[in-house]
């Protein structure tokens, strides 16, 4: 049985650490942000002005339909699970999401105040569309009504108990849990996108999930406006999140 997982996260979340956990399974192949180049090719100004832009454009297909076709290709021998780390801000309003409905989709969320604060430490400007939460609301609406559960996992909940959430996900997917998902060797991976030197320092230094700790967030007026614009969507997602007792 082949299992194809789409993990949909905004930026400045635990998405790359989560990818490490799944890549450490011997039965799993991971794909890192396959729509990044397609997103950059279709955006301009500050939205398209990303570190390493030209390298990303050269490394991946820029046609979304070509990306979708690649994700549906047969998996390597001995591999049963495909885990795709998607960035939801790579979706544009006109994108057709019907290709994603057959996947086992999961939404990975984080409070907008923390996302905006982290984002602005790396880039000078930020708009509501840059942090992916509005797009996650769209995904919940478009992928959920088919009858397939779309779990919503809040990063704060997950980091308080990674093993329980990973066990739940494995059970939901019909695959066995392994302790290998809780710890991994430090350093880069061949599967990391070419943008990794710009964004992955903390993950390269990691050997597992960091314990949850509350963040003391202070936003200026512009940052607060972005967080406020995304807060209603986040609160709806948070209300729908998976809570393990």
From TrEMBL:
Provide the GO MF annotations for this entry.
hydrolase activity
Report keywords, A-Z: Hydrolase
Which InterPro entries does the protein's record reference? Answer: Class-IV_PLP-Dep_Aminotrnsfr, P-loop_NTPase
GO biological process terms on file:
carboxylic acid metabolic process
Pfam families linked to this entry: Sulfotransfer_5
Similarity field? Belongs to the class-IV pyridoxal-phosphate-dependent aminotransferase family.
Q: What is this protein called?
A: HAD family hydrolase
Source species, please?
A: Nocardioides islandensis
The organism's lineage is: Bacteria, Bacillati, Actinomycetota, Actinomycetes, Propionibacteriales
């Amino acid at each position: 049985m082949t299992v194809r997982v789409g993990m949909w996260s905004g930026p400045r979340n635990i998405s790359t650490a989560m990818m490490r956990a799944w890549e450490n399974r011997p039965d799993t192949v991971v794909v890192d942000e396959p729509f990044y180049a397609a997103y950059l090719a279709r955006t301009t100004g500050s939205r398209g002005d990303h570190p390493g832009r030209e390298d990303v454009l050269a490394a991946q297909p820029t046609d979304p339909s070509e990306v979708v076709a690649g994700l549906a290709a047969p998996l390597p021998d001995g591999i049963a699970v495909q885990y795709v780390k998607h960035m939801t801000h790579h979706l544009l309003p006109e994108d057709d999401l019907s290709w994603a409905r057959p996947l086992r989709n999961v939404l990975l969320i984080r409070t907008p105040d923390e996302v905006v604060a982290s984002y602005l430490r790396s880039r000078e400007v930020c708009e509501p569309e840059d942090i992916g939460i509005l797009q996650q609301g769209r995904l919940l609406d478009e992928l959920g009504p088919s009858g397939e559960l779309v779990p919503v996992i809040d990063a704060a909940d997950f980091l308080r108990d990674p093993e329980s959430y990973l066990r739940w996900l494995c059970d939901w997917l019909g695959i066995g849990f392994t302790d290998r998902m809780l710890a991994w060797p430090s350093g880069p991976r061949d599967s990391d996108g070419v943008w990794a030197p710009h964004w992955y320092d903390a993950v390269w230094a990691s050997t597992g999930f960091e314990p949850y700790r509350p963040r003391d967030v202070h936003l200026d007026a512009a940052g607060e406006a972005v967080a406020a614009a995304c807060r209603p969507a986040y609160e709806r997602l948070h209300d729908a999140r998976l809570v393990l007792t």
